[in-house]
Design a protein that fits this description.
homohexamer; alpha+beta; Tetrahydropterin Synthase, Chain A; five-stranded mixed beta sheet; 5 strands; elongated
C-alpha cells in the first residue's frame, strides 16, 4: 500500500459571513475575514490516493487521470473565482477553508468512479493550505466511503441550527 | 554597506479590469483575472533597506521601526482587503501586482523620514510575490530618491493615454 | 472531522548535556550539540486540532483562541530564550527536541479546557521542526487524553534509571 | 511515543519503461517519462522512526546511526546514478517513484537490526518527493514488520502477470 | 521600471563529461557527476523581464506571451529529456548548469522579438537552480543585448582551447 | 559572466548586547534579543561567486573547492557554537547578523587566493538569513576587493565611538 499525494494550486477570494449571525456576531467570530468586500488566498491543495501498485506499471494511479478529475470537478470552478459568488455550495455554507475542504472532498468522492472505473485505489485524504500558517486536512477512511456526503450532513445541521 | 531584507505577508483580493478598455479587451488582456467577482492572493512582501552599520549596535536599522512603517502605511490598509474597493490608489489604477508594488514603494518612500529621522539607511528595494511563480521587484536607486512619486507619473500617463 | 494545523515559530538556544552522564559519554552521545556554550535553532511548531465543524460558522475552533493558548503557555516562555536556563522543565530534562515536543504537548493539554471550555475539538498532534532536516511529531490519540502528563512519566523513568 | 523524521536528498535519473508492455503501451502509460534517453529528479527522502524516548538522553535514536544506515543502504547506490542501469532491483522493476519507495523501505527494514541492535525504535514510514508536486508515502505498521519484503511480493506479481 | 520574474520548472538528466579531457581528468573534475549512466535534476528556472508599465493595463508584459516563448524555445526541448542526448547545443558543450543557463539565455534572446514585437520590455536575467543548494544566474545588461550569442563565444573558446 | 550561488546552513546561538551601552539601552535597542542567556538560529548562508566559464569544463569554479573554503574558514568555527563565546571577532563586535555577514565576508576574502589560486572567479556576494523573515546581504564589488577588511573598519569606528 502506497499513498500518492499530488499538489494543485488555485487562487480565489472569499468573505467569511454567515446569514445566521448578526453583523456584530459576524464581526466578532470572523474578525478581519468579515471585511465587506472580501479578500483572497493562494490555496495549496494536496490530494492523496492510496492503493496497491499495479505490478506491471509500478503505478498506483495514472496522474493525468487524477489531474482531469481535479481540474474538471474542482479547479475549473474555483480558480480565479470568488467562492461566495461563483461556487454553488457556498450560497448556503460559509466559505471557511474547513468547508472548502469538505466541499472538495465531496466533489472528488462523487466523481471518483467515473475517472477511475477499474482502479482499486481510493481517495484517502485532502489537505488544503489557506496560507503558509494554516492548513486543513480531511482523512477519508475506508469505512467512510459509502457515507452520505459531507455537504448534505452540514446543510442538515445548518437547518436544524437555524 | 549591507542590505537588510525583511519579509511581510498579507492576503487580499483584486480584479483586473481597466475602465479604459472595452469588456472584450479586458477579457483578452487579463484572462481569468478579469472574472467579474474577483479572486485573491497571499502576497509576500520583501522590503530592502541599505546602509552602513551603526558601529555600536551592529544594526542597519531597528526592525521594530521598519515594522511600524510597513504596518501603518501598507498592511493596515491592504491586509484582508479588496484592493479595488478598499485602497484609494486603485480607484484609478488597475491593481496588477506591478501597480501594487509601485504604490507600496511610494507609500514607504513618503513615510520614510518620519520613521527613520536620523538614519542614513535608505529604502533600496521592494519585491512582492503574487504567487509562488510570479514576483515583481522595484529597485530604488539613490538618484531616484528625490524623483516624483511613481503613482503621479502613472496617473499622468493614464490621462495622456485616455 | 477535520484537522486544522496552525504554524508558529520561535528561536531559542539549547545545549544537550545530561547530568546523568560523564563528560565523555555526553560528548559521545550528543556530539557537537554538547559544545559547552550551546547553539540555537529557529523552531517551527505545528499544532493540530481535530473536531467537527460548527455548522453555523464553518469553523473547528477560532484561531485567535488557539493563538492565545500557544502564546501564553509556550511562546512567552520559549521564544528568544535559552531552554536550559529559562524553561523550568529543562532543569531536569535534556532539551532535545524530542523532550521539547513532549513538554509543549503537556503544557497545551493542561491549558486546553481553559481556552476551549465548550469546544468538542481536541488537541490531536504537535510537530516541531528543529532544522529543515529534522522534525519530531507527537500524535495525541483520544484515549491518551486522560493519561498522566508526558513529563511526569519521563521524570519517573529518569529517577528509576539514575 | 514520538516520531522523528529526518530528511535526505539525492539526485538520480530514470526512464519509465516496462519490458512487459509494447512501445505504444509504454508511451501511452508513461507519456514523456518514457522518452528514450531518460530524465531525472532531485528526490527528497524523509525517513520516519517511532519509539519511546530514552529517559536519560531524551533521544529516540541517535541520528548519526540513522545517517549511516541510510547512506550505506540507499544513498551510496542511488545518488548521482541512473536508477535503471545502476540499481539492481530495477532490472526487473520499473523505477517509478512508487517502486523506488518500496525498494528503499525494504533495504532499510533489512538493515535495521544491524544499525539499531538494542533500540526499541522502529522504522515507521518513508516518504519520497519526486518533484515539488508529487510525493509517495509508505506507512510501515508494527504488524507489517515481519512481513516478507515488498520487493519479492512485487516480483511474484510481475511473474504471475507476465 | 519594474522587474517581473516568472518561475518555470523542468526535470532532465545529464552527465558531466568533456571529450577534451581524459577519463581520469573527467573523474577528478566532475566527481560523481561523471558517473557513466548520468543522473538528473528538477531544475527551477526563473526568467526576469524588466520594463516600464503599460499605463493602461498596469502590466510590464503579458505573462501568457512569456509562457509561449519559454515553452516553445526551452521547455519543449528540455523537459523530461537527457540534455546530452536530446539538446543540440550539448553535443559540443558539457551540460553543466552554467552552460544550461547560457544556452537558455541565448535561445530566449534570439526568440524575444518574435514574441514581444512591440514591447519595450527586455529580458534582463535568468536564474536556474540545479538543486536547492546550487543556483546559477546570468544578468543580461542593456548593452549586452546586441552582443554575439553566449554559445558561439563559448564554442570559439573551446576550439582555441582544444 | 555567471554568478554561482551555493547554500550552506549552520545553527548557532548568540546574545545581542553591547558593552558600550547601559543595561537599559541594551534592552531598548535589542529587545528580547538581549535576554541574558541568549537564543539561537538556523542560519542559511548563500555564497556567490562570479566569473567566466572555463570553456573546457563549463564550470565557474569547482564547488568542492568552495566547500573546503567555507567549511574551514567559517562553518568549523560557527556551527553548533555560541557566537559571543566561541568566535573571536565577537569579543569586540555585537553578533548581529549584520556583523556576522561582514565577518564571514572578511574571512572568505582573506582565504580566497589560497583556495582558488589560478581562478579568475571572484567572491561577489554573501547573503545570510537569520530567520525566514530576515536576510542580510553584502555585495562585494570588484573595486572593493583590495579594500581593507570590513572588520578592521568596524573596530576603528567602535574605538572612535567609544
Amino acid at each position: 500500500m502506497i499513498t500518492v499525494t499530488r499538489r494543485y494550486r488555485f487562487c480565489a477570494s472569499h468573505r467569511l459571513h454567515s446569514e445566521l449571525l448578526s453583523d456584530a456576531e459576524n464581526a466578532r467570530v470572523f474578525g478581519k475575514c468579515n471585511n465587506p468586500y472580501g479578500h483572497g488566498h493562494d490555496y495549496v491543495l494536496d490530494i492523496s490516493v492510496t492503493g496497491e501498485l499495479n505490478a506491471t506499471t509500478g503505478l498506483v494511479v495514472r496522474l493525468p487521470d487524477l489531474d482531469r478529475l481535479v481540474k474538471t470537478e474542482v479547479l475549473a470552478g474555483f480558480a480565479y473565482r470568488n467562492l461566495n459568488q461563483d461556487v454553488a455550495e457556498f450560497t448556503e455554507l460559509v466559505p471557511t477553508t474547513e468547508n472548502v475542504a469538505l466541499v472538495i472532498a465531496d466533489r472528488l468522492r462523487k466523481g471518483w468512479r467515473d475517472y477511475f472505473p477499474y482502479s482499486s485505489a481510493r481517495l484517502s485524504g485532502i489537505s488544503i493550505q489557506e496560507t503558509e500558517r494554516n492548513s486543513f486536512e480531511v482523512v477519508i477512511s475506508q469505512s467512510a466511503e459509502s457515507a452520505p456526503s459531507f455537504i448534505s450532513k452540514l446543510n442538515e445541521s445548518v437547518i436544524v441550527n437555524a
